[in-house]
Design a protein that fits this description.
ABC transporter substrate-binding protein; 18 helices; D-Maltodextrin-Binding Protein, domain 2; alpha+beta; globular; single chain; 466 residues; Bact_solute-bd_prot1; 2 domains; three-stranded mixed β-sheet; SBP
């Protein structure tokens, strides 16, 4: 759990910018090899390029440097080179063609199909065969990079979208709380009943200003059984204008115009939505930002619950967008370097040191009167030996932990984000969403068809699938 928190600190350094100096292996900074390698081992000398934080991420640099030192101590035969290139869909092809990509790199969940189709992923089967925790990874997060029974990536930080609920607003309007097995009909009824436009309270607040709007809406597309894109005959085409897409967009239209359940000013971005929630002006939002709501927003733990996305029909899947970051190994490296890269990306997983770090976090939250969110899908299985150790530790801090209901976690099903030009796809969908929210007579099917045609022509037609 703590490893996830720390790896997100490191990965954040690369999300802000992909520009900078020449990051080729020849120009990368090199760490000093151990002065006197152990005479007890005759392991061959290996050179490995490590993905390193950008220069402005001091916290990330300190964390990785400490990790490198520990790794070097265990593997003195490895020469480590630092490379601060962070994954970019527009740059990965250039890096691979020039053989300048790091020995391993962190990539978003959206990139799995692209990387595999270009043969830029290493099959981890040989390494997992000798790895004691090979069967302890959480399948919900590992599945996006499991193809034909083979695993191609190690989950670093992942999420499956959920719904965060302000119980107090339900109680104020005497609206029964929904249950984990709820449906779209239940969601609509709850959103309509808890909305109080005269007081500026929305039953449901969703993002609809930037690309986040398409991201939020895609959860309902998946819930209707749809997908954003199809791949056939080496071509990628939009699929969000399917019958499932129409159902999902019509549901948004119903919430807006029939239920009057959305904020009167619905053009909200990521921060706007969560600020509205923290102010007690939205009964339901997508996400599980419990820590922010309580620790920074002053909300009470007992006033909040998390549920899975509702199923479209009773008994259906509770499907949400699955996203996050994954560590993959460069297939251009030698088998010896690939093994060391695997050893590095799994170096801090399933270790007691992670428990020690988590204890520090929990002690800090206890001292500050803050909460720690526990129970969301993590890289490990909850019923693994390590998962049980995490749970035992968390149980020692009952007042400072907000728990996912295990039933909620079991119901959650994740579907990866769009594989090709994901952010541009979300932007195209946001345009449709905004038109639907602006015009109660909007023709949903026509809007989706037009968006798909435009997106295919301007963006997806240029994608080459090998």
């Amino acid at each position: 759990m703590t490893f996830l928190a720390l790896t997100m600190i490191v990965s954040a350094c690369g999300s802000s910018s992909n520009t900078g100096n020449n990051n080729s292996k020849e120009n990368a900074a090199t760490s000093e090899p151990a002065a006197s390698p152990s005479t007890e081992t005759k392991a061959p000398q290996v050179t490995m390029t490590v993905q390193f934080p950008k220069s402005d991420n001091l916290t990330g640099i300190e964390f990785v440097n400490k990790r490198l030192a520990r790794f070097q101590e265990k593997y003195p035969n490895v020469t480590l080179k630092k490379n601060d290139w962070q994954y970019s869909p527009n740059e990965i092809g250039i890096k691979m063609a020039a053989h300048q990509a790091p020995s391993f790199f962190r990539t978003p969940a959206t990139e799995g199909k692209v990387l595999l189709e270009h043969q830029w992923l290493t099959d981890l089967t040989p390494f997992l065969a000798n790895y004691e925790h090979a069967n302890d990874f959480n399948d919900k997060l590992a599945d996006p990079f499991k193809i034909d029974g083979k695993m191609y990536a190690i989950p670093a930080s992942g999420y499956i979208m959920a719904v965060m609920i302000n119980k107090k607003l339900f109680e104020d309007k005497k609206v029964p709380l929904p249950t984990p097995d709820w449906t779209w009909d239940d969601f609509y009824a709850a959103a309509k009943a808890t909305a109080d436009p005269a007081k500026g309270i929305a039953g449901f607040a969703m993002m609809a200003k930037g690309n986040e709007g398409g991201w939020n809406w895609t959860n309902f597309l998946y819930g209707a059984g749809g997908t954003t894109q199809n791949v056939a005959d080496s071509k990628v085409t939009s699929a969000f204008n399917s019958d499932a897409g129409v159902k999902a967009m019509e549901f948004m239209k119903k919430l807006r115009w029939e239920g009057n359940a959305l904020p009167q000013n619905w053009a909200l971005n990521f921060g706007d939505v969560y600020n509205l929630f923290k102010q007690g002006r939205a009964a339901m939002v997508l996400g599980d930002r419990i820590e922010d709501a309580i620790n920074n927003g002053g909300m009470k733990k007992e006033d909040l619950i998390i549920l899975p996305l509702p199923s479209m029909v009773k008994g259906g899947d509770h499907t949400g967008v699955l996203g996050g970051n994954y560590d993959v190994i460069n297939p251009q490296e030698t088998p010896e370097t690939q093994q060391m890269a695997f050893n590095y990306v799994t170096f801090d997983l399933f270790k007691d040191s992670g428990l020690d770090e988590l204890k520090l976090v929990l002690e800090d939250r206890k001292a500050k009167g803050q909460v720690y969110l526990y129970g969301a899908p993590a890289y490990y299985k909850a019923d693994s030996e390590y998962g049980k150790k995490i749970e035992a530790l968390v149980n020692q801090y009952p007042d400072n932990v907000f728990r996912y209901d295990p039933e909620v976690t079991n119901l959650m099903k994740g579907v990866p984000e769009p594989s090709y030009n994901g952010q541009e796809c979300y932007a195209a969908l946001t345009n449709v969403l905004q038109e639907v929210f602006s015009n109660k007579d909007a023709d949903v099917k026509s809007l989706l068809d037009a968006a798909a045609k435009k997106f295919d022509s301007e963006v997806l037609s240029k994608v080459v699938v090998k």
